[in-house]
Design goal:
Layout: E1 3-7, E2 10-12, E3 18-25, E4 32-39, E5 45-51, E6 57-59, E7 67-72, E8 77-82, E9 91-99, H1 104-109, E10 117-118, E11 122-126
Parallel strand pairs: 2-11
Antiparallel strand pairs: 1-3, 3-8, 4-5, 4-9, 5-6, 7-8, 9-10, 9-11
């Protein structure tokens, strides 16, 4: 069964940090590009960080210099390290995987890009 499972979300105070994990099962992430998406309350889901199969990354301006995406193919997992969190980072975080056919920037900014697999999401709440 092909599956992506996110974990690591929770409640964190402003200025705090969290690390999200996106674990794949039923297939190998080695040749897949992965994106992290965020859906803030009442807003559309948007890509925030992406990584291709070679490890090149792209970050949206809203998270640049605060979030870091990485991958560990041996663990079949992609991570999102989030630092200096603020209330605007609150939302449901999803990971998604796709065949590595787009540039890492395109897969993050082009809303027409179709991802093959999605996780169920993990809630991140930034509040004091």
């Amino acid at each position: 069964q092909v599956q992506l499972v996110e974990s690591g979300g929770g409640l964190v105070q402003p200025g705090g940090s969290l690390r999200l994990s996106c674990a794949a099962s039923g297939f190998s992430l080695d040749y897949y590009a992965v994106g992290w998406f965020r859906q803030a309350p009442g807003k559309e889901r948007k890509a925030i960080s992406c990584i291709n199969s070679e490890g090149s990354t792209y970050d949206a301006d809203s998270v640049k210099a605060r979030f870091t995406i990485s991958r560990d193919n041996a663990k079949n997992t992609v991570y999102l390290e989030m630092n200096s969190l603020n209330s605007e980072d609150t939302g449901i975080y999803y990971c998604a995987a796709m065949a590595d056919i787009w540039t890492v920037q395109e897969m993050c900014v082009n809303t027409a890009v179709v991802y093959d697999y999605w996780g169920q999401g993990t809630q991140v709440t930034v509040s004091s």
